[in-house]
Amino acid sequence: MTDPIADYLTRLRNAITANHRIVEVPSSKVKKEITKVLHSKGFIQNFKFEETGPQGNIKIALKYNPSTKQPAIVKLERISKPGLRKYVGANDMPRVLNGLGIAIVSTSKGIMTDKEARTEHIGGEVLCHVY
Asked: Side-chain half-sphere of 98: how many Cα atoms within 13 Å?
């Protein structure tokens, strides 16, 4: 697999489209950090790291509106790809939907949202946009 982060986002996107409650993805350090950011910002309901085998899995409970059954995640979009990396400075940090969505950024201080990177005044690689 050449792009495991794109595979992670595609599995989430497919599970949301099929209205699944739980999705299971292979684990890695970057995927664990992205999952923590999505949970802290309220895009997913819960998650659990399972250390089975050499790699382990991440079980993610997706979040839906109880009355309308609409998913909390409307769109997941991969920005930086292996063939074309997208790096931004602290002053050029993207704003997703004028601040309603988040951009997940890989910085020297770890994986964080665009707002956190802007307040800490550090740039990095824009992994994906979520709204």
From this structure: 0
- 77-107, pLDDT tens digit by residue? 999 999 999 999 999 999 999 999 999 999 9
- Of 98, 100, 103, residue with least CA distance to 123: 103
Provide the CB-side half-sphere exposure for 71 (13 A, CA).
21
Q: Which residue has the tokens 């939907």?
A: 97
> Using the 8-state DSSP alphabet, how is residue 60 labeled?
E
Q: Which pTM was predicted?
A: 0.95
Pair 106, 114: CB distance under 8 Å: no
* Distance of alpha carbon 72 from alpha carbon 62, whole angstroms: 8
Q: How far is CA 57 from CA 8, 12, 25, 87, 123, in A?
A: 11, 14, 6, 29, 30
